[in-house]
């Protein structure tokens, strides 16, 4: 799926240009520019208060930016503008449903609002109930659902009209591990098989790394970094941890051979990490053979905290 204007090049499904949102002294979103291309799963990653929800609300026309512009599916977003509504599914607040209505009835309300036909069988409501594993809950009232199933119902409501673009604020909140895996598979399948573009927010890099194709790191309203999820591995720092029976001597030996060991014999020199066997050889030759040589890799959460500069907070 591509969005085209006349004969020109495909335009991004989402385009944010220098968008800011201020609330008095608080700058919730600060000069953000980003593009999301068709079929991407773009994750906005940020700690609490980073500005994710504010940016998502801007995309949906719920908040007007103080500065800059936001376009979705080729149309400039402004308050009351509904052009993209029929082609967009979204989940932005805590999952809400009519408590007295059943799962099927809740979805039926959305079907009517969106003027979707009931045919061909099974119809959009039953199809989405099955797709989101809600079949055994279809006749249960929403008020009797667990948090996870309520979240699943909210996703079903966002998907019932098979949107081209799906915008989800923290979509796996409240789901158990099996539910997280299921939603991840569903979103990946939507992007891969149906070309659906997904923009989601999360504060969990580990989760996002498994799901997203592109990641934008937001902090204090600013987009600090954007990267392809496939390039994440190269961003993770590595180091070589060495242990010997005489670390003081080993430290001296390594320091005089062009390495830069920390006091606990951790090396961050590239050539040490690439060639730990050379470190071992030096130590053996100088009479302090290593009892341990371990290349350690930064985990994803540490990387994220390093990028947002909060690791020492
Ligand atoms: N209506 C508002 N009035 C004043 N400040 C606001 C308003 N909405 C958001 N903010 C502030 O803007 C900043 C960004 O909030 P936002 O809800 O967008 O962050 P978030 O990344 O979605 O956080 P969370 O993960 O906690 O939902 C926060 O400091 C928040 O307190």
Automatic annotation (TrEMBL):
Which residues are in the ABC transporter domain?
A: 14-245
> In the record, what terms sit under GO molecular function?
ATP binding; ATP hydrolysis activity
UniProt keywords (A-Z) are: ATP-binding, Nucleotide-binding, Transport
Q: Name one Pfam family in it.
A: ABC_tran
Q: Which SUPFAM superfamilies match?
A: P-loop containing nucleoside triphosphate hydrolases
**PANTHER family attached to this UniProt entry:** ABC TRANSPORTER, ATP-BINDING PROTEIN
Protein family according to the UniProt entry: Belongs to the ABC transporter superfamily.
Q: What is this protein called?
A: ABC-2 type transport system ATP-binding protein
Query: Which species is the source of this protein?
Result: Nonomuraea dietziae
Which lineage ranks, top first, belong to the organism behind this chain? Bacteria, Bacillati, Actinomycetota, Actinomycetes, Streptosporangiales
């Amino acid at each position: 799926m591509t969005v085209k204007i006349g004969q020109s090049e495909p335009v991004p499904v989402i385009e944010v240009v220098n968008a800011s949102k201020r609330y008095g002294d608080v700058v919730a979103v600060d000069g953000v520019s980003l593009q999301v291309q068709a079929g991407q799963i773009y994750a906005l990653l940020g700690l609490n208060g980073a500005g994710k929800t504010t940016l998502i609300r801007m995309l949906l026309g719920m908040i007007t930016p103080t500065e800059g512009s936001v376009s979705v599916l080729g149309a400039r977003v402004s308050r009351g503008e509904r052009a993209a509504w029929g082609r967009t599914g979204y989940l932005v607040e805590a999952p809400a449903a009519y408590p007295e209505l059943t799962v099927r009835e809740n979805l039926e309300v959305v079907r009517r609002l969106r003027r979707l036909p009931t045919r061909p069988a099974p119809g959009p409501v039953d199809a989405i109930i099955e797709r989101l594993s809600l079949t055994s809950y279809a006749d249960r009232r929403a008020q009797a659902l667990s948090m996870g199933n309520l979240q699943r119902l909210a996703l079903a409501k966002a998907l019932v009209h098979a949107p081209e673009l799906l915008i989800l604020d923290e979509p796996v909140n409240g789901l158990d591990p099996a539910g997280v895996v299921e939603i991840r598979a569903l979103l990946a399948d939507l992007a891969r098989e149906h070309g659906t573009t997904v923009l989601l927010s999360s504060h969990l890099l580990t989760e996002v790394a498994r799901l997203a194709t592109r990641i934008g790191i937001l902090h204090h309203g600013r987009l600090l970094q954007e990267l392809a999820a496939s390039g994440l591995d190269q961003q993770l720092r590595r180091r070589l941890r060495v242990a010997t029976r005489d670390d003081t001597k080993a430290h001296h030996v390594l320091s005089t051979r062009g390495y830069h060991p920390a006091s606990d014999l951790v090396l961050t020199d590239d050539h040490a990490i690439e060639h730990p066997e050379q470190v071992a050889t030096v130590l053996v030759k100088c009479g302090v053979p290593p009892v341990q040589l371990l290349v350690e890799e930064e985990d994803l959460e540490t990387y994220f905290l390093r990028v947002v500069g909060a690791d020492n907070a």
